[in-house]
Amino acid sequence: MSIDQPATVSATIGQDRSLEALARTVAAARPVEAWNPPDCGDIDIRIRADGVWEHLGRPILRPALVELFASILRREPDGRYCLVTPVEKMGIRVDDLPFLAVELAQEGEARDTVLSFRLGSGGWVTADADHP
Asked: Which sequence spans correspond to the domains of the chain?
C-alpha cells in the first residue's frame, strides 16, 4: 500500500506500542453497546460507498486508525451511525453501509458450511445468528 492509497484494509501488526496494538486492545475490550455517553454532535468523518473512510474530505490513510474507528462504530435506534467511547458519542456520515466485505472464506460443506468475511476496515465476521 502506498501513501496515496486510502486505508481500507487492516495493516500487518507491528510493535506492541503501535496504533495497531491499540486498535486490537480497544476491539477486544469495547462494550460499545453498553456505553451511553453524552452526544457531542457530528464530526466530519464519512464512510464512502466504496468503503473508504474520510476525515475533512480526505481519505484516512492509516489502516490501524480506520480499524480503531470501525471498532467503536455503533448504529443508533434512529439509524444514525456514531463513534462511541465511554465519554462521548459523535455522529458520522455513512453513504451506504459502514462495512464492505473484501474477502470470503468458506469452511465445511452443505448444512455445515460456515462463511466468514474479511472487512475492508479490518477483522473478520462470521455469518451467524448475530451476523445474518
From this structure: 19-98
Q: What is the pLDDT of residues 54-92, one digit of tens each?
A: 999 999 999 889 988 998 999 999 999 999 999 999 999
* Residues in Cβ contact with 79 at an 8 Å cutoff, skipping those fewer than 6 apart: none
Distances, alpha carbon 2 to alpha carbons 11, 13, 51, 68, 123, in Å: 12, 17, 17, 20, 21
Q: Is 83 exposed, middle or buried (0-12, 13-18, 19+ CB in 10 A)?
A: buried
Q: Give me Rg for the CA atoms of the chain.
A: 15
Are the CB atoms for 122 and 72 separated by under 8 Å? Answer: no
Q: Which CATH class is domain 19-98?
A: alpha beta
Backbone angles phi, psi at 3, to 5 degrees: -65, -20
CA atoms within 13 A on the CB side of 25: 7
Q: Would the pTM count as exceeding 0.85? A: no
